[in-house]
Design a protein that fits this description.
The complex is a heterodimer of chains A (113) and B (116). With 113 residues, chain A is mainly β. Chain A contains no helices and eleven strands. The chains are: A mainly beta (113), B mainly beta (116).
Chain lengths: 113, 116
Amino acid sequence: GENVEQHPSTLSVQEGDSAVIKCTYSDSASNYFPWYKQELGKRPQLIIDIRSNVGEKKDQRIAVTLNKTAKHFSLHITETQPEDSAVYFCAALFSGGYNKLIFGAGTRLAVHP
Amino acid sequence: GAVVSQHPSRVICKSGTSVKIECRSLDFQATTMFWYRQFPKQSLMLMATSNEGSKATYEQGVEKDKFLINHASLTLSTLTVTSAHPEDSSFYICSARDPGLTNTQYFGPGTRLTVL
């Protein structure tokens, strides 16, 4: 069935360290993988996404890697800052029908000064 | 990114009443919108896919007669929670897919529903 698993559920790092969040998906036909950042009580904000025709994408301190063979993708945040503290969700686009996004359970990231 | 609005942002109602939530795409036309529900400290759970000009597609376990969806135009989808009960209290968020950017979805600000 349609499933996205995300780890870890919580992550605590010191300011300046790197943070890595990992996700796996079940549908081998999935070809789009966005990452969203959600602050408390607010909407999820798209921070980066990757499509299946590339293995890595970078945007300043944020990068995403994709391993289609393993059905695995990861978010990397370098030089973390306190304002990076939030809940991060990965998602995978499941093909068929109206191409719906299925979300992982989320990772609560805390960056300590 | 594209702008999606949602109204109201917060609503408190009595058990048994119905509540309508509006989702609008402000700067693009969205043939497809999505409705999610998010309980505290949990992920976004897709409830249904709203399709302009046709019936919504509901996820397994979501009652279509309780959560009525209408996508009357390319910029507006509405979700009506009928005969609301306390267990329906949640954060309801819509998203719209920008047709100019394949598969990219932008979220509305959400509606916090509290049923007393």
